[in-house]
Fold this protein.
Amino acid sequence: MRIQKYSFGVGDRFCHEGEAQLRALLKARKEFGVDFVPVWNKSNREHQIVGTEPQGTRDEADAAVKALGYTGQYFVDADHINLKTVDRFLDCSDFFTIDVADYIGKTGSMEEKFLPAINEAGRIYRYIAEKKGADNFVTEVSMDEVDNAQTPEELRYILRKIAEEKIPVQTIAPKFTGRFNKGVDYRGDLKLFEKEFEEDLLVIDEAVKEYGLPDNLKLSIHSGSDKFSIYPIMGRLLRKHDKGIHIKTAGTTWLEENIGLALADPDALKLAKRIYVNALTRMDELTIPYATVIDIDLKALPSPEEVEKWDAETYARTMRHNQADPLYNPSFRQLIHVSYKIAAELGNEFLPALEKHKEVIAAEVIENICDRHIKRLFKD
């Protein structure tokens, strides 16, 4: 099983926007001539918080494909799994993101820092292969959720050891310099990111030739949602070197659902406001699990009284990631990003609202994925 050149990970907390996400990728194909393979992803943590099972993601993907008559390749990603969590994903996933960041050392030689993680990746891969058959899934190795970026030399070592472990890795997610916070733009030195990204592309080229790794091996960008400032850089370098990419997004669709509800009708706007107000009272609970990937300025968060006065357009503009809009508030957006647990708790109200306002929400999802994300990669 081989994944195509370009793939886009579409996370969906509540498994309601599969059709809209697929429509966005089909729109990108039509308008920009780029064929992105959809990869529906949802992590074990997200399933636990929302109270869902991995089979729901498979059902969502299959239903979207059937509804739109889509005949291309698509995958369902067991996102950030390890040996303790992989079993519940085995029957319904055909893409496995093997997360070994916890096994990476902070100091020492390259062997001391990375070999335990690579050995663990080998154990997990072989376990999945034994259960599913080695040719029945795509393997990604994830090393991005650590403090320090991996140098090109370290990536070369990592790939050599992955080859020695006989892991047929097709996508690799290293840690890059800078902040990849949830739901907001990249924060960091763009020139340094450009240098690292290009060097990593070249390292992968060398690793494929020297170590016998799959010839479709490509970089995977995690927390890729809303990193608008690096998209033109990545797009330019991908075209320069004729390379593929896997971009993994997650909570951005949940944010677009929130915007869509705010715009849909007064009752849905009240529901969106209630989620935010509840989030303010549960800040620590909601933010601690995401502490390494959010930067919320508490002083920038509007009060409940202020939000209560907002009309639909004010709410949507405050949330929507448009940096040219003076109302856009990245702290507000990040807090909502990590507050999907509250929406899950309001399931008897929230899920019917998603169904009722499906078309309004779909328009937001499509615009976000196609026009704010993919367009920045491939439209000069």
User: Anything to note?
Assistant: The mean pLDDT is 96. The first strand starts at residue 6 and ends at 11. The radius of gyration is 20 Å.
